[in-house]
Design goal:
The complex is a heterodimer. Chain A is about 75% helix and about 0% strand. Chain A is an all-alpha fold. At the A-B interface, helix 1, helix 7, helix 10, helix 11 and helix 12 of A face helix 5, helix 6, helix 9, helix 10 and helix 11 of B.
Chain lengths: ~290, ~300
């Protein structure tokens, strides 16, 4: 169902503007040229049959040829996937490395310094736009201190700033949720029982607390994958990172529609698959949830 | 006759009376000064709002007044925020950028709330359209919203009006879902039954009896969404997909400032701080508003 919706939407990218011919041809094209082009591209046929053709193409992984790169749009997109995957992985690492310790500390030691740090991070992280943070970090760490490269993709050092930029928002959201959930769980009766049995605090938090607090966190993580995929568009543009997001923006600005369509479609599919996998993970983590 | 009276009194007791609810809401809102962060945020928002309203009449250079002799001057008495690479006053551009950003997000929030609210109301009331509308929200939620924005801009081109449309399209789902869920429970409540028994049409029940009871949720959603829209507006303008480059906007300013970051930090710092502070204020105020209005409901 979602899949059908996505194909309709991706199809509409090209047709929402009315006649795609006018978008693709230069202004000085003669009416005869326009007619011929329209016929070659099949734009003179009914929308529904164009859509069916489009679907047939998708099944074969064929989105047409990129106007700019003169090669199949999908392979142009796939070439950029590894760079984005690395960046998203880095960001996810930043997110988890910040959010899990900070969220747990804030929940276990309520009203401590850590709790306040977590609260401030959560608020600031959700208010500062990634690209602003990125530009300021470029200024401080790349321009002033020359610790890392300013942009591009060259070794692990070049991964640091983009990962922080991309991961900050998710880290903030996750910290906030983990703190709220874990402190809720730690108030439950079974935690008190465990304490009474003499379970050490560390084991209690990890085994009894985290396991129960983690399910909503996982849901949020699924949503954050979408945020990361979307955020990578901006992060990649700031850092001239050779990934999918930057390709997409360049394709939009160059009106390279087959590439836009292939990229949007690919991202949507990845998002769907990841959320499906997270649904499956639920039943592993929580035996009470079983899918028929 | 006696039966009538009894039934009538039931209606009065059960229906959340709108007048009283309104007063209760106001009573809670006047307590804002007791919560320091929320109060401070409100002050910031009011000041920023006023500043951007009066920006055109302030004694500062126009946002597009170029003077290449004063390129990239650091902050000084004459140019408190410095000047950019074309010699334009950064303070003036930041204020005018705020006008655009605030206007775009407010109009988009309004549009999203009206469209989403009405569709949610319809969806909750009429099962015939419910399926269609909810599947539509499913499809949209299975899609990162910035991808949707990029796809739409790719199709209809970047401009301020299109920016509003893009944001509204990406935001109506929130309202539709929440309003539908509330309508489903409210329409089964006794006051809806009573209105039905009195012979009100479904449409009248929807708009006169149910709608006033979902406004609280809509207001809370709208506040937090305004902050998100500001970030998205800045992001899209930064990418060159939002406000056209000849109009001052925070995202556009940051995009230009990035080219100069080796020479100057001020063209980037001030518009960036402006977005961050405003979004922070809206979020803090919105959280407080949610709690204040919720405590009324409970």
């Amino acid at each position: 169902m979602s899949l059908a919706g996505i194909t309709v939407m991706v199809f509409m990218i090209l047709h929402l503007s009315g006649d795609p011919t006018s978008l693709m041809l230069p202004l000085e094209a003669t009416p005869e040229d326009v007619e011929r082009f329209r016929h070659i591209m099949g734009f003179d046929r009914p929308l529904i049959s164009q859509y069916l053709d489009f679907l047939r193409g998708i099944v074969a992984g064929d989105f047409g040829e990129s106007f700019r790169y003169r090669s199949p749009a999908m392979s142009v997109v796939l070439e950029r996937v590894p760079a984005t995957a690395i960046l998203t992985g880095g960001a996810l690492l930043v997110t988890l490395l910040v959010a899990i310790p900070l969220g747990v500390l804030a929940a276990v030691k309520k009203d401590s310094v850590w709790d306040r740090v977590a609260t401030v991070l959560a608020l600031v992280g959700q208010a500062v736009p990634g690209f602003f943070l990125a530009i300021m970090m470029i200024y401080v760490f790349a321009v002033r201190l020359s610790l890392v490269p300013t942009y591009g993709f060259s070794g692990w050092r070049s991964l640091i700033l983009p990962s922080i930029t991309l991961g900050l928002y998710s880290a903030a959201a996750l910290t906030r949720l983990l703190r709220a959930n874990l402190s809720e769980v730690l108030r439950q009766d079974y935690i008190r029982t465990a304490t009474a049995k003499g379970v050490t605090r560390r084991i209690m938090v990890i085994r009894h607390g985290m396991r129960n607090a983690f399910l909503p966190v996982l849901t949020l993580l699924g949503i954050q994958v979408g945020v990361l995929l979307g955020g990578s568009v901006i992060t990649e543009t700031v850092f001239a990172w050779p990934g999918l997001g930057r390709l997409m923006i360049q394709a939009v600005l160059n009106r390279d529609y087959p590439v836009v369509q292939a990229a949007v479609f690919f991202t949507a599919i990845v998002f769907l698959v990841i959320n499906f996998l997270i649904d499956l993970l639920y039943s592993v983590l929580d035996p009470r949830i079983r899918y028929q | 006759m006696v039966d009538n009276i009894v039934e009538h009194s039931v209606i009065v007791v059960d229906a959340p009376p709108r007048r009283r609810a309104g007063n209760g809401r106001l009573r809670h809102l006047t307590k804002v000064w007791r919560n320091k962060p929320a109060f401070l945020s409100m002050v910031v928002l009011v000041v920023v709002g006023l500043l951007s309203v009066v920006a055109p009449v302030l004694p500062i250079p126009g946002p597009n007044t170029r003077d290449l002799r004063v390129r990239l001057l650091p902050p000084s008495m004459e140019h408190p925020f410095g000047t950019d690479h074309q010699g334009r006053d950064v303070l003036s551009r930041t204020l005018h950028g705020g006008r655009i950003s605030i206007t775009v997000s407010l109009v988009a929030v309004l549009l999203a709330a009206v469209v989403g609210g009405v569709l949610g109301l319809l969806s909750g009331f009429f099962t015939s359209v419910d399926n269609l509308i909810m599947r539509l929200t499913d499809v949209q939620l299975s899609f990162p919203s910035i991808m949707l924005a990029i796809a739409i801009v790719a199709a209809i081109g970047p401009s301020i009006v299109n920016l509003v449309i893009v944001l509204a399209v990406s935001g109506w789902v929130d309202y539709a879902r929440v309003v539908r869920a509330e309508v489903l429970s409210l329409r089964e409540r006794d006051f809806s039954e009573a209105a039905r028994a009195l012979g009100c049409s479904e449409a009248r029940i929807a708009f006169r009896h149910i709608l006033p009871n979902v406004t609280t949720s809509i207001v809370i959603l709208a506040t937090l969404q305004a902050a998100r829209f500001m970030l998205q507006e800045a992001g899209l303008s930064f990418l060159g997909l939002g406000v056209p480059p000849d109009v001052a906007s925070w995202g556009g300013m940051l995009s230009e400032a990035q080219q100069q970051i080796f020479i100057a930090w001020w063209p980037a710092l001030f518009p960036g701080l402006a977005i961050s502070i405003i979004v922070l204020s809206i979020n803090i105020f919105g959280d407080w508003l949610g709690e204040a209005l919720d405590s009324r409901a409970n």
